[in-house]
Structure formats: structure tokens, C-alpha cells
Amino acid sequence: RYLEIFLQPLSSAESDLLVNSLLAVADLPARLRERVLEKAAGNPFFVEEVVRTLIDRGVVVHDQRENRWVAVHNVEDIHIPNNLQSLLMARIDRLEQEVRQTIQLAAVIGRSFYFRVLRDIAERDQSVLAQHMRQLQQGDLIQEAARLPEQEFVFRHVLVQETAYAMILHRQRREFHRRVGETLEALFPERLEEHAVVLAYHFDQ
After folding, report:
1. What does the buried/exposed string (b/e) look like for 64-87 if buried means 16 or more CB atoms within 10 Å of the residue's CB?
2. Nearest to 78, CA basis, from 32, 41, 44
3. How many Å apart are CA 36 and CA 28, to the nearest integer?
């Protein structure tokens, strides 16, 4: 038994309302609003990512005195990618190099990943890696899923993971998968049967 629910794209009014809720009190030029809504085509995730991109790039800034978000660039000079993957790729590409490498390694592990596993394959100091995790959470690219019995993170959306993974050079992927498989074997020797499918996937890449 199941209940099938058909989700329709957001209407222009609903998308506009989402922009307002994301920016609290917004004062965006009408033309910029139109371009955001046009590109998003009713996809709420796209709307959110466009807004985050505009903030990351300093196109939209928060006016502390008047408590509102305003555009500080000429609307016609603002480039908004045509699809969600390009948008996510641009956001990830703007990360600091080491943070970008961290999210790419996490993407190799999977949609969700243990901090211990990422720490071992990244070969970075734990405090540095923890800082990377905070930056990625602040950017809403990943979220903490659990702390016990293992600290675990999850990509906010599967498209974020897929985009980060796609940015890894093909010749590097096999090596990263091998490192993930060997790390899983070393960290969880008593759970090899439980992880058999995952191990087979990583060693087969």
C-alpha cells in the first residue's frame, strides 16, 4: 500500500513568497526577482540555491541598519546558471581549495558519511577537518545526521553529492574509492558482513 502524491511546480506567487521567506525582508529589484523566478521554473530547491548563490557572491547583501536584503550590483551583470547542476557546481567551485577537496572526498563515501571515515581518507588534522565541516554546514551543503554512536553527516540533497562527485577527475576516483574501502575495513573489522555491499561497490570502481 502506498499513497502517491503529485507535486506541482511552485507558482510565480509561491516562488516569490519563498524568496521573501529566505531573505526575511527583501528589497530586490523587480528585474532580479523576475530572473530568479524565471530560472527556477517553480523548483523550490533551485530558488533556494539561487538565493544562496547571490549571497555567496556578494550580489545580495544584508543592510544591518534597515534589516533588509538589497542587491548591490547591476541586475543585467548578474549571471544565473540555467540549471541546478551548474548552479551547485559554481557554489562548490567557489569554496576554498581544501574545503572543496573535503566535500569531494565525502561525496565518494556516499550520500551519508561518518566523520571518522572522512578523517582517515582525507589525512587531515581533526580540528581542520571539523572546521571544514562547519563551513559546509554553514553553506547548507551538508547537515549533521547523528552524533552517537558515530558522528555522521549527510548531504543536504543528493544532487549536491552527485555534483561534488562529478567534479573529481576520473583518474582520481578509483584511488579515492580504494581508500574508502580500506578505511571501512580497518575501522569496522567486526562489521564487514554488514558493509559487504558498500565494500564491493568501492573496490569495484
Report:
1. eeeeebebeeeeeebebbeebeeb
2. 32
3. 11
The pTM of the whole model exceeds 0.90: no
How are strands ordered across the β-sheet holding 112-114?
112-114, 152-155, 142-146
Q: What angle (nearest 5°) sits at the alpha carbon of residue 193, between those of residues 192 and 199?
A: 60
Q: Which three cell numbers stand for residue 52?
A: 544562496
Instruction: Give the sign of the dihedral formed by CA 99, CA 104, CA 105, CA 107.
Output: positive
| Whole-number pLDDT of residue 34 | 77
> Which CA distances in Å does 74 have to 61, 63, 94, 168, 205?
13, 17, 21, 34, 46
User: For the segment 100-152, what is each residue's pLDDT rounded down to a tens digit?
Assistant: 999 999 999 999 999 999 999 988 888 999 999 999 999 889 999 988 888 99
d(Cα 46, Cα 87) in Å, to the nearest integer?
Answer: 8
| Residues contacting residue 49 through CB under 8 Å, at least 6 positions apart | 84, 87, 88, 91
How many CB atoms neighbour CB 129 within 10 A? 19
How far apart are alpha carbons 204 and 8 in whole angstroms? 39
Direct distance between the N- and C-terminal alpha carbons of the chain, in angstroms, rounded to an integer: 36
pLDDT of residue 23: 64
Of 114, 110, 108, the residue nearest 147 (C-alpha): 114
